[in-house]
Amino acid sequence: MFLCRDKKGMVLSTIVNIVIITIALFLIIGIINHFFSKAEGATADSICRGSVLAREKYALRYLGGTIKKSGPPLLCKTEDKIMPEKKGDSKEEIKRDISNLITKTWYMFGEGLPKNIFDDFIFGGYSCFVKYTISVKSNSKFKYGDYISREDLLSWLSLNPYKVEVKETKNKRYACEKKGGVCVEGGLCSSDKMYYSDPAWSCGRNQICCVDKKNFITYIDYIQSYVGEGRLFITNEKFEPGETYGIALVSPHAKWFKVLVGDFNPNANYIIINKLNDLSKYCVKVEDIAGK
Fold it and tell me: What is the mean pLDDT of residues 20-26?
């Protein structure tokens, strides 16, 4: 009789302890989320990327895809940007700034290596995280009626270098030469080389730095194949003043049936860009750490 009561008491005590621990965990998670949601700039970026990579360690893989994971929370926040960033920025500067936000999103979410970051179920739809919103304003060089077409932005991404691979060379004088480039007078590179203006690749006075074309990694190269494999979809036709756009990361779950019929990497992460209000047509938006 007493033994039965003791067992009931032990069960009740265990349940109470579990409830207390659960409540404590929710409180701790809430405090952590509140603290990290206040982070800004480079600190917020580092926290976001770190949380993505930490979650990847808990991934459950099966038949070439990542099915489901549990573990650390995603500590990323949506940032609101206004473009042009400066009053005198032209179309070229706007294309550059949008492109930098695209590659920054790709970097913060693991450069295509983590899969199923948002814990989508196998037979469900796709989730996405809107890393940046871009509110486009008008200025003297980008007025109402002006626009940047989808093709124009894609061309910029395909032609401009995101980074250059360093080929270290000893016993050279200038930074450009030490990294594998060639310092040339006269302002003209040979046909197999391209001019590179990064201050970290400096040359002497009246010289320019010329680098082998094969060492250039364009913005689109970086997303498609530099680290992991990825894709970029710009689904709006143009960028124009008065509109707000979203840059989102989609991380698909495993698509076994497509893998089996030889579809091109259906499990690759990708970035999608569209008018902010239209993104919901393509994916389910995940809340950020601040609840946006």
Answer: 49
For the segment 210-252, what is each residue's pLDDT rounded down to a tens digit? 999 999 999 999 999 999 999 999 999 999 999 999 999 998 8
Beta-ladder partners of 194: 211
- Cα separation of 168 and 241, whole Å? 44
Distance CA 283, CA 249 (A): 10
268-285 b/e with 16+ CB inside 10 Å = b? bbbbbbbebeebeeebeb
SS (H, E, C) 210-251: EEEHHHEEEHHHHHHHHCCCEEEEECCCEECCCCEEEEEEEC
- pLDDT tens, residue by residue, 29-69: 454 554 444 556 688 899 999 999 888 776 655 444 555 55
Yes or no: say if 142 and 90 are a contact pair by the CB < 8 Å rule. yes
Instruction: State the pTM of this model.
Output: 0.78
CB-based contacts of 200, cutoff 8 Å, min separation 6: 175
The amino acid present at 230, given as its one-letter code, is G
Residue 123 near residue 66, CB atoms below 8 Å: no
Assess contact for 75 and 132: CB atoms under 8 A.
no
Instruction: Match 């409830």 to its residue by tokens.
Output: 19
Q: In what order do the strands lie in the sheet with 193-195?
A: 182-185, 207-212, 193-195
**Across 70-215, where does the E strand assignment appear?**
79-83, 127-136, 148-149, 161-164, 182-185, 193-195, 207-212
How far is it, in rounded angstroms, from Cα 197 to Cα 175? 12
Phi/psi of residue 128, nearest 5 degrees = -145, 155
